[in-house]
Amino acid sequence: VYIQPKVNMETGAIIGGEALIRWRHPELGMISPMDFIPVIEKDGFIINVDVYVWNEAFKMLGRRQAAGKKVVPISVNISRLHAHQDDMVKCIRGMGIEHGVSPDLVGLEVTESGFSNNTTVLFERMQQLRDFGFSVHMDDFGKGHSTLTMLKNEPVDVIKLDRDFLRQIENAKNQVVVRNTVGMLNALDVHVIAEGVETQEQADFLIQCGCYDAQGFYYYRPMPMEEF
């Protein structure tokens, strides 16, 4: 499990992290998730990977809390396949209880496309988890599946702007889209995090728009959990 820090762009402080899976092969070296995730999604093994990552993240938080060390919220990904498993809510809540981790220290990230599939069941489960104190994050917002109607109804606490929003940020039309998207989400009282921030120019523009938190290589790349 690797963690990519989330950063406040005004202060540079680490405000959280996202738990990610990496494959360090003994012969082939580091294998990209873009190569192996589609395979394990197709075969259904993504559910096992989800559980492994969730448990490692809860375990790390619980261990640090028990030792009186500083903790910041860590978000974990819920795959589209896993989001519709009947025992998902019980599994996540059970890990929190087992490791003594407060639910407000764990964010649950579901991709935007996941919210567009069988939304009634997904909304119910996400709301159950919110009722227990977990926060729900929509990942990859703006990749093409979003609708304003969905935004009105979804049980979402955090929206992560897809990195495509920041490409060609010098383009005037792109700036209008980003500025107004951030403004709308702020008005809806949804916390906004920008993904894929790679330059000071992008960071400065986002701050001007009212988006203060980010993930991206400009600040930190994903790193082993111990290093985080």
Task: Summarize the topology.
Layout: E1 2-8, E2 14-20, E3 23-25, E4 29-31, H1 33-43, H2 46-66, E5 74-77, H3 88-99, E6 106-111, H4 112-115, H5 119-131, E7 135-141, H6 148-153, E8 158-161, H7 172-187, E9 191-194, H8 200-209, E10 213-214, E11 223-224
Parallel strand pairs: 2-5, 5-6, 6-7, 7-8, 8-9, 9-10
Antiparallel strand pairs: 1-2, 1-10, 1-11, 3-4
Care to give the gist of this entry?
By secondary structure, this protein is an alpha/beta fold.
Strand fraction: 15-25%
Number of strands: 11
For the largest sheet, list the strands in their spatial order. 1-2-5-6-7-8-9-10
Give the integer mean of the pLDDT values.
Answer: 91
Helix tally equals 8
* Helix percent band: 40-55%
Major β-sheet annotation:
8 strands, mixed, barrel
Order of helices and strands: EEEEHHEHEHHEHEHEHEE
Indicate the overall shape.
globular
